[in-house]
Amino acid sequence: MQPARAVLLLLPLVALAGCAELDPYTREGVWRPAGANAANLRAMVAVPSELQQGTDYAGPTGQAGAAAVDRLREERVRPLPSVTTGAFALPGGGGN
After folding, report:
1. Contacts of 45 (CB under 8 A, 6+ apart)
2. Mean pLDDT (whole number) for 17-29
3. Helix (H, G, I), strand (E, B) or coil at 57
4. How many Å apart are CA 65 and CA 43, to the nearest integer?
5. Can you say whether the dihedral through the CA atoms of 87, 92, 93, 95 is positive or negative?
6. Which DSSP state fits 44?
7. What does the alpha-carbon distance between residue 73 and residue 67 come to, in Å, rounded to a whole number?
8. What spatial distance separates the first Cα and last Cα of the chain, rounded to whole Å?
9. How far is CA 84 from CA 10, 54, 78, 87, 95, in A?
10. CA distances (Å), 63 to each of 29, 58, 59, 67, 68, in order?
11. In whole angstroms, what is the distance from residue 19 CA to residue 91 CA?
């Protein structure tokens, strides 16, 4: 009875030992993503030197949006401009 019990305990260990060969990253002949992300970034970036050190952003700083939020919080919201529509023609020459 003892040898049968030992075999039953060792059987799952033997089965799990074979799992290392099923791992797609450790199997032989399988592509390994070593440095693939960094290589893709280098290929996509317009100015490769910016990967080492970035550049200052020269665009809007968000001051207009922040001012709008401040006006909303202080209940000083500006009214929307009035918009009127004039006559216009539809493409295709159709109409009533």
Report:
1. 51
2. 70
3. coil
4. 35
5. negative
6. H
7. 10
8. 98
9. 84, 46, 19, 10, 21
10. 55, 13, 11, 6, 9
11. 67
Percentage of residues in the chain with pLDDT exceeding 70? 77
**What global pTM score does this model have?**
0.28
Which amino acid is it at 75? Answer: E
CB atoms within 10 A of CB 90: 7
Question: What's the pLDDT score for residue 71?
Answer: 93
Q: Does residue 48 have a pLDDT over 90?
A: no
Q: How many residues does the chain have?
A: 96
* Cβ pair 25, 32 in contact under 8 A: yes
Residue type for position 13: L
User: Contact at 8 Å (CB) between 51 and 45?
Assistant: yes
* Residue that has been written with the tokens 């939020």 in this structure: 69
Tell me which of 21 and 77 has the higher pLDDT. 77
